[in-house]
Amino acid sequence: MEKDCIFCNIVAGKTETEFLYQDDMLVVFRDINPHAPVHLLIVPKKHIRSINDLTEADQPILSEMLMVAKDMAAEHGIAQSGYRLFINVERGGGQVIFHLHLHLIGGFR
Ligand code: AMP
Ligand code: ZN
Q1: How close is the Cα of 49 to the center of ligand 2, in Å?
Q2: Active site residue 103
Q3: 3-state secondary structure labels for all residues of the chain
Q4: 69 alpha carbon – ligand 2 mean position (Å)
Q5: pLDDT of residue 2
């Protein structure tokens, strides 16, 4: 855990953020500034700075992120209508929070 990392603090339960799902590897919560009716963040508990910092050992986390994203899409009723999954990488890729996270957005009209 990085003490100045906002997502580490959320993962550690130090904020009011409501978890929609959690397991031993990750948590899911709503994006504070949603870009669609459903905008969730799938966030590993481990502090991984960005996709560029992944190691082989992180592979189970990555697959869990995708499996949970699929399940959360179904749970929020957007599996069939469709959704986007994306990861911003480094500043030029739009990354603002340097703790790996997968965006799940959908429910567009
Ligand atoms: P990124 O540009 O991929 O780094 O996205 C960071 C995302 O985190 C943005 O969509 C923010 O709206 C979101 N965010 C920042 N702070 C919080 C927070 N405290 N709780 C929930 N979402 C947050
Ligand atoms: Zn962190």
Answers
A1: 7
A2: no
A3: CCCCCHHHHHHCCCCCCCCCEECCCEEEEECCCCCCCEEEEEEECCCCCCHHHCCHHHHHHHHHHHHHHHHHHHHCCCCCCCEEEECCCCHHHCCCCCCCCEEEEECCC
A4: 20
A5: 84
Confidence of residue 1 (pLDDT cuts 50, 70, 90): confident
Token duo for residue 13 = 């339960």
Indicate the top mutation candidate among 33, 88, 91, 105 to test ligand 1's pocket, ranked by most ligand atoms within 8 A of CB: 33
**pTM over the 0.90 mark:** yes
Tokens matching residue 65: 């992120």
Q: Which residues line ligand 1 (CB under 6 A)?
A: 6, 17, 29, 31-33, 41, 88, 94-97
What's the Cα-to-Cα distance from 83 to each of 37, 53, 59, rounded to whole Å?
11, 26, 23
